[in-house]
Amino acid sequence: MRTSKQITMTVLAATLVAAGCSKKDETYQPRTAESQPTVRVTPASITDVPHSTQPVVPGPVTFADGETAYNAGNYADATKIFEQYTAQKPENAWGHFMLGLSAWKSGDLQKAETALEDSLRIDPEHLKSLVNLSRVLLDQRRFDDALVRLTEAGKIDPNSADVQRLLGRTYSGQGKTDDAISAYRAAIMLDNGDAWSMNNLGLLLLEQGRTDDALPFLARAVQLKKDVAMFQNNLGMALEHTGRYTAAATAYHNALAADPKYAKAEKNLTRVEAVKSPSEEPFNLEAVAGRVVEQTQHAAVETPNQ
């Protein structure tokens, strides 16, 4: 007869394959990708302006009008404004870039791609357009096309953690797990506060059954961003894999505190709370996450800037 621990680990393994490592969660947020950041773009000629929720009005518009709508989260309005702005100033690469970013955040991937390509036709070395175009392509699972753009971006800025993180996503999508792991490690070396690279690397290692290697990265992701439900849930899965059911339950509770509608965390919590586990040592998040900090600091000493 199998023990409760054996049964639980079997169920957990199936959960990890069927749900835990899904590339998208219920809100179509890529699971092994960074969240789409709110990007405030202020070229030298642009100054910050107060947020506004006023509806779009007809007539000439300014870059600041569109930026105001974008920063307020009114992406559909921002898209309309930047469409008008780029018609007024078709040679402004920043206008096309912001149109692309606004359309992407609105969910119009085709319009976003076209706008970002327009920005690059004006300025082929517009790094932000290259990086965000790769995100649009990744959202369409066009991994080969994304790799082309990221290679171009890497030549412009070889020290970009964003580029390395997105390369990790690209290689992962292509099934090149070792290359993805290397890219995420490179991103972390460039930015030891890159929580998304920590999370993504941890998940890849967890998928490979390298739970002990995965745990420090997932712990560090949570340490950096405690309010991201996905990070808490992923940490919970790693803890559950190592038999730390009480600590896993805490992580799942934290996930639900961050997002009460996070169904995966709720399901995972129900499962671990049904397990009668022996007493376990307290899980020290800071100590485990500290292993990643030590690794990056040690590597930085070994490879100083030239």
Offer a quick outline of the entry:
This protein has 306 residues and is mainly alpha-helical. The chain contains 15 helices and no strands.
Can you identify the CATH superfamily of the largest domain? Tetratricopeptide repeat domain
Top-tier CATH class of the largest domain: Mainly Alpha
Oligomerization category of the chains in this entry: single chain
Portion of residues in beta strands equals under 5%
Given helix and strand content, the structural type is mainly alpha
Report, as a whole number of angstroms, the end-to-end distance: 61 Å
What is the H-and-E element order?
HHHHHHHHHHHHHHH
Gyration radius, in Å: 22 Å
Q: Label the CATH architecture of the largest domain.
A: Alpha Horseshoe
**Count of helix runs:** 15
State the major sheet: none
Can you give the helix content as a percent range?
A: 55-70%
**Low-pLDDT segments, ≥5 res:** 7-11, 17-55
The CATH topology of the largest domain is Serine Threonine Protein Phosphatase 5, Tetratricopeptide repeat
For the structure shown, list the relevant keywords:
single chain, Serine Threonine Protein Phosphatase 5, Tetratricopeptide repeat, 2 domains, 67% helix
